[in-house]
Design a protein that fits this description.
By secondary structure, the protein is α/β, with parallel strands linked by helices. It contains ten helices and ten strands. The protein folds into two domains: 172 residues, P-loop containing nucleotide triphosphate hydrolases (Rossmann fold); 81 residues, no CATH class. It has a six-stranded mixed β-sheet with strand order 6-7-8-3-9-10, sandwiched between helices. Strands 2-1-4-5 form a four-stranded antiparallel β-sheet, with helices on one face. Strand 1 and strand 2 form a beta hairpin. The mean pLDDT is 89. The protein binds adenosine-5'-triphosphate. The site of adenosine-5'-triphosphate has 10 residues, from helix 1. Keywords: ATP-binding, Nucleotide-binding, Transport.
Length: 262
Protein backbone atom coordinates (compact mmCIF):
# COMPACT_ATOMS: atom_id res chain seq x y z
CA UNK A 1 0.00 0.00 0.00
CA UNK A 2 1.23 3.51 -0.79
CA UNK A 3 1.95 5.81 2.12
CA UNK A 4 1.37 9.04 0.26
CA UNK A 5 -1.36 9.54 -2.34
CA UNK A 6 -1.55 12.75 -4.36
CA UNK A 7 -4.66 13.14 -6.45
CA UNK A 8 -5.42 15.85 -9.01
CA UNK A 9 -3.45 18.44 -7.02
CA UNK A 10 -3.44 21.95 -8.45
CA UNK A 11 -2.82 25.63 -7.73
CA UNK A 12 -2.74 28.80 -9.84
CA UNK A 13 -0.88 32.04 -9.25
CA UNK A 14 -2.38 35.02 -11.05
CA UNK A 15 -4.06 32.81 -13.63
CA UNK A 16 -0.97 30.67 -14.28
CA UNK A 17 -1.37 27.03 -13.33
CA UNK A 18 1.86 26.33 -11.42
CA UNK A 19 0.65 22.80 -10.61
CA UNK A 20 -2.10 21.40 -12.78
CA UNK A 21 -3.96 18.23 -11.78
CA UNK A 22 -0.97 16.16 -10.64
CA UNK A 23 -1.59 12.60 -9.42
CA UNK A 24 0.96 10.10 -8.11
CA UNK A 25 1.66 7.81 -5.17
CA UNK A 26 4.77 7.14 -3.11
CA UNK A 27 5.23 3.76 -1.50
CA UNK A 28 6.97 2.65 1.67
CA UNK A 29 10.56 1.60 1.00
CA UNK A 30 10.64 3.45 -2.31
CA UNK A 31 12.35 6.55 -3.65
CA UNK A 32 10.00 8.58 -5.82
CA UNK A 33 11.72 11.39 -7.74
CA UNK A 34 10.06 14.48 -9.16
CA UNK A 35 11.98 15.88 -12.12
CA UNK A 36 11.38 18.54 -14.75
CA UNK A 37 12.77 21.82 -16.12
CA UNK A 38 13.07 25.01 -14.07
CA UNK A 39 9.64 26.42 -13.31
CA UNK A 40 7.90 23.07 -13.96
CA UNK A 41 6.14 23.27 -10.57
CA UNK A 42 8.21 20.83 -8.51
CA UNK A 43 8.76 23.00 -5.43
CA UNK A 44 5.20 24.30 -5.62
CA UNK A 45 4.03 20.67 -5.62
CA UNK A 46 6.11 20.06 -2.46
CA UNK A 47 4.63 23.20 -0.90
CA UNK A 48 1.12 21.86 -1.60
CA UNK A 49 1.89 18.38 -0.28
CA UNK A 50 3.59 19.68 2.89
CA UNK A 51 0.86 22.17 3.76
CA UNK A 52 2.80 25.37 3.00
CA UNK A 53 0.28 26.25 0.24
CA UNK A 54 -3.43 25.46 0.13
CA UNK A 55 -4.41 23.63 -3.04
CA UNK A 56 -7.13 24.93 -5.39
CA UNK A 57 -7.92 21.35 -6.43
CA UNK A 58 -7.21 17.79 -5.37
CA UNK A 59 -6.32 15.92 -2.26
CA UNK A 60 -3.38 14.60 -0.26
CA UNK A 61 -3.71 11.30 1.59
CA UNK A 62 -1.39 9.69 4.14
CA UNK A 63 -1.99 5.98 4.68
CA UNK A 64 -5.51 6.40 3.35
CA UNK A 65 -6.40 9.40 5.56
CA UNK A 66 -7.26 12.67 3.86
CA UNK A 67 -4.86 15.34 5.14
CA UNK A 68 -5.56 17.97 2.46
CA UNK A 69 -5.13 21.51 3.81
CA UNK A 70 -3.58 20.43 7.11
CA UNK A 71 -0.80 22.74 8.35
CA UNK A 72 2.84 21.55 8.37
CA UNK A 73 3.00 20.80 12.14
CA UNK A 74 -0.04 18.49 11.94
CA UNK A 75 1.41 16.78 8.86
CA UNK A 76 4.63 16.31 10.84
CA UNK A 77 2.66 14.53 13.55
CA UNK A 78 1.03 12.42 10.83
CA UNK A 79 4.54 11.31 9.80
CA UNK A 80 5.63 13.73 7.07
CA UNK A 81 8.86 15.75 7.13
CA UNK A 82 10.64 17.82 4.50
CA UNK A 83 13.81 19.69 3.69
CA UNK A 84 14.07 22.88 1.66
CA UNK A 85 15.95 23.78 -1.52
CA UNK A 86 18.20 26.31 0.25
CA UNK A 87 20.14 25.43 3.38
CA UNK A 88 18.20 26.44 6.45
CA UNK A 89 20.68 25.87 9.26
CA UNK A 90 21.63 28.07 12.20
CA UNK A 91 25.40 28.52 11.69
CA UNK A 92 26.29 29.47 15.29
CA UNK A 93 24.36 26.55 16.83
CA UNK A 94 25.94 23.11 17.16
CA UNK A 95 25.00 20.35 14.75
CA UNK A 96 23.13 18.65 17.61
CA UNK A 97 21.12 21.77 18.49
CA UNK A 98 20.28 22.29 14.82
CA UNK A 99 18.84 18.78 14.65
CA UNK A 100 16.99 19.29 17.94
CA UNK A 101 15.06 22.18 16.36
CA UNK A 102 13.38 19.49 14.23
CA UNK A 103 11.90 17.97 17.40
CA UNK A 104 9.80 21.09 17.93
CA UNK A 105 7.73 20.14 14.87
CA UNK A 106 6.27 17.17 16.73
CA UNK A 107 6.43 18.23 20.39
CA UNK A 108 3.23 19.21 22.15
CA UNK A 109 5.10 21.81 24.15
CA UNK A 110 3.92 23.16 27.45
CA UNK A 111 5.28 26.70 27.70
CA UNK A 112 4.71 26.98 31.44
CA UNK A 113 6.54 23.71 32.14
CA UNK A 114 9.40 24.90 29.90
CA UNK A 115 9.63 28.29 31.63
CA UNK A 116 9.59 26.74 35.08
CA UNK A 117 12.08 24.04 34.06
CA UNK A 118 9.73 21.35 35.41
CA UNK A 119 10.88 17.69 35.36
CA UNK A 120 8.44 16.90 32.51
CA UNK A 121 10.10 19.58 30.37
CA UNK A 122 13.61 18.37 31.26
CA UNK A 123 12.61 14.78 30.40
CA UNK A 124 11.28 15.97 27.03
CA UNK A 125 14.57 17.78 26.29
CA UNK A 126 16.63 14.72 27.22
CA UNK A 127 14.48 12.59 24.89
CA UNK A 128 14.91 15.10 22.06
CA UNK A 129 18.68 15.17 22.61
CA UNK A 130 18.82 11.37 22.41
CA UNK A 131 16.70 11.34 19.23
CA UNK A 132 18.89 14.07 17.70
CA UNK A 133 22.06 12.06 18.43
CA UNK A 134 20.50 9.03 16.75
CA UNK A 135 19.51 11.10 13.69
CA UNK A 136 23.07 12.50 13.48
CA UNK A 137 24.46 8.97 13.70
CA UNK A 138 22.08 7.92 10.93
CA UNK A 139 23.42 10.75 8.74
CA UNK A 140 27.05 9.85 9.54
CA UNK A 141 27.60 13.06 11.50
CA UNK A 142 27.74 11.89 15.13
CA UNK A 143 31.37 12.95 15.55
CA UNK A 144 30.42 16.50 14.62
CA UNK A 145 27.53 16.77 17.10
CA UNK A 146 29.12 19.45 19.28
CA UNK A 147 30.65 21.49 16.43
CA UNK A 148 29.00 24.73 15.30
CA UNK A 149 27.21 24.17 11.99
CA UNK A 150 29.43 26.89 10.49
CA UNK A 151 32.37 24.44 10.67
CA UNK A 152 30.61 21.73 8.64
CA UNK A 153 31.30 21.25 4.92
CA UNK A 154 28.54 21.85 2.40
CA UNK A 155 27.84 18.15 1.95
CA UNK A 156 27.71 17.66 5.73
CA UNK A 157 25.20 20.52 6.00
CA UNK A 158 22.96 18.89 3.38
CA UNK A 159 23.02 15.69 5.46
CA UNK A 160 22.43 17.72 8.63
CA UNK A 161 19.18 18.95 7.11
CA UNK A 162 18.14 15.38 6.38
CA UNK A 163 18.98 14.47 10.00
CA UNK A 164 16.75 17.31 11.20
CA UNK A 165 13.88 15.88 9.15
CA UNK A 166 14.59 12.32 10.36
CA UNK A 167 14.47 13.33 14.02
CA UNK A 168 10.72 13.81 13.71
CA UNK A 169 10.40 10.03 13.30
CA UNK A 170 8.76 10.57 9.91
CA UNK A 171 7.55 7.78 7.63
CA UNK A 172 7.36 10.10 4.62
CA UNK A 173 10.37 12.25 3.78
CA UNK A 174 10.23 15.02 1.17
CA UNK A 175 13.68 16.20 0.04
CA UNK A 176 13.98 19.32 -2.11
CA UNK A 177 17.24 19.05 -4.09
CA UNK A 178 19.21 17.15 -1.43
CA UNK A 179 22.39 17.04 -3.53
CA UNK A 180 22.24 20.53 -5.11
CA UNK A 181 25.68 22.16 -4.98
CA UNK A 182 27.39 18.96 -3.76
CA UNK A 183 30.54 17.61 -5.41
CA UNK A 184 30.68 14.00 -6.66
CA UNK A 185 31.86 12.57 -3.32
CA UNK A 186 29.25 14.50 -1.31
CA UNK A 187 26.53 13.47 -3.79
CA UNK A 188 27.47 9.81 -3.26
CA UNK A 189 27.17 10.26 0.53
CA UNK A 190 23.73 11.84 0.15
CA UNK A 191 22.80 9.07 -2.27
CA UNK A 192 23.84 6.34 0.22
CA UNK A 193 21.95 8.06 3.03
CA UNK A 194 18.73 8.34 1.00
CA UNK A 195 19.05 4.77 -0.20
CA UNK A 196 19.44 3.57 3.41
CA UNK A 197 16.46 5.61 4.60
CA UNK A 198 14.24 4.05 1.93
CA UNK A 199 15.52 0.58 2.82
CA UNK A 200 14.34 1.18 6.39
CA UNK A 201 10.82 1.36 4.93
CA UNK A 202 10.24 5.10 4.66
CA UNK A 203 8.63 6.64 1.61
CA UNK A 204 11.14 9.11 0.18
CA UNK A 205 10.04 11.73 -2.35
CA UNK A 206 12.72 13.94 -3.82
CA UNK A 207 13.17 16.77 -6.25
CA UNK A 208 16.53 16.65 -7.96
CA UNK A 209 18.29 17.91 -11.08
CA UNK A 210 21.26 15.53 -10.80
CA UNK A 211 20.19 12.85 -13.28
CA UNK A 212 22.90 10.41 -12.23
CA UNK A 213 21.58 10.49 -8.66
CA UNK A 214 17.96 10.29 -9.79
CA UNK A 215 18.51 7.35 -12.11
CA UNK A 216 20.63 5.52 -9.55
CA UNK A 217 18.31 5.66 -6.57
CA UNK A 218 14.75 6.11 -7.83
CA UNK A 219 12.21 3.32 -7.78
CA UNK A 220 9.81 5.56 -9.60
CA UNK A 221 10.06 8.93 -11.39
CA UNK A 222 7.36 11.55 -12.00
CA UNK A 223 8.12 14.13 -14.70
CA UNK A 224 6.54 17.59 -14.61
CA UNK A 225 6.48 20.21 -17.32
CA UNK A 226 4.57 23.50 -17.06
CA UNK A 227 2.75 22.24 -13.98
CA UNK A 228 1.52 19.05 -15.57
CA UNK A 229 2.67 15.45 -15.21
CA UNK A 230 3.97 14.43 -18.64
CA UNK A 231 5.35 11.00 -17.74
CA UNK A 232 5.89 8.57 -14.90
CA UNK A 233 7.62 5.26 -14.58
CA UNK A 234 10.79 3.39 -13.72
CA UNK A 235 14.18 5.03 -14.48
CA UNK A 236 14.70 2.92 -17.63
CA UNK A 237 11.27 3.94 -18.93
CA UNK A 238 11.86 7.65 -18.21
CA UNK A 239 15.33 7.94 -19.69
CA UNK A 240 14.06 6.60 -23.01
CA UNK A 241 10.77 8.50 -23.07
CA UNK A 242 10.80 10.87 -26.11
CA UNK A 243 8.49 13.41 -24.39
CA UNK A 244 10.83 13.59 -21.38
CA UNK A 245 13.90 13.92 -23.58
CA UNK A 246 12.22 16.71 -25.52
CA UNK A 247 10.93 18.61 -22.47
CA UNK A 248 13.79 18.12 -20.06
CA UNK A 249 16.58 15.63 -20.52
CA UNK A 250 17.68 16.70 -24.01
CA UNK A 251 20.54 14.80 -25.60
CA UNK A 252 23.02 15.74 -22.83
CA UNK A 253 20.71 14.78 -19.93
CA UNK A 254 19.77 11.50 -21.59
CA UNK A 255 23.46 10.63 -21.91
CA UNK A 256 24.04 11.57 -18.27
CA UNK A 257 21.07 9.43 -17.23
CA UNK A 258 22.45 6.58 -19.28
CA UNK A 259 25.88 7.00 -17.62
CA UNK A 260 24.28 6.40 -14.23
CA UNK A 261 23.80 2.82 -15.36
CA UNK A 262 27.43 2.36 -16.27
N1 LIG B 1 4.30 32.13 -4.53
C1 LIG B 1 4.27 32.23 -5.85
N2 LIG B 1 3.64 33.26 -6.46
C2 LIG B 1 3.59 33.36 -7.80
N3 LIG B 1 4.12 32.45 -8.64
C3 LIG B 1 4.74 31.40 -8.11
C4 LIG B 1 4.86 31.22 -6.69
N4 LIG B 1 5.54 30.07 -6.44
C5 LIG B 1 5.83 29.55 -7.66
N5 LIG B 1 5.37 30.35 -8.64
C6 LIG B 1 5.47 30.10 -10.08
O1 LIG B 1 5.07 28.77 -10.30
C7 LIG B 1 5.85 28.16 -11.32
C8 LIG B 1 6.49 26.89 -10.79
O2 LIG B 1 7.57 27.26 -9.90
P1 LIG B 1 8.38 26.20 -9.03
O3 LIG B 1 9.33 26.96 -8.18
O4 LIG B 1 7.42 25.29 -8.35
O5 LIG B 1 9.16 25.40 -10.15
P2 LIG B 1 10.31 24.31 -9.98
O6 LIG B 1 9.97 23.19 -10.89
O7 LIG B 1 10.50 23.98 -8.54
O8 LIG B 1 11.57 25.11 -10.54
P3 LIG B 1 13.15 24.99 -10.13
O9 LIG B 1 13.66 23.71 -10.74
O10 LIG B 1 13.74 26.19 -10.81
O11 LIG B 1 13.25 25.04 -8.63
C9 LIG B 1 6.85 29.20 -11.79
O12 LIG B 1 6.32 29.84 -12.95
C10 LIG B 1 6.90 30.16 -10.62
O13 LIG B 1 7.26 31.45 -11.04
Amino acid sequence: MSRLDIEDLGISFGGIKAVDGVTFSAGAGEVTSIIGPNGAGKTTLFNLVSGVYTADTGRVGIDGTDVTGKPPHLLARAGMARTFQNLQVFPQMTALDNVMTGCHMIERSNLLADLLGLPSSRRETAKSREAAREALRRAGLEKLAERPASELSYGQLKRLEIARALVTGCDILLLDEPAAGCNAVETREVDDLIHGIAQEGKAVVLIEHDMRLVMRISSHIVVLDQGRKIAEGRPDQIRNNPDVIAAYLGAHGAAEAEAANA
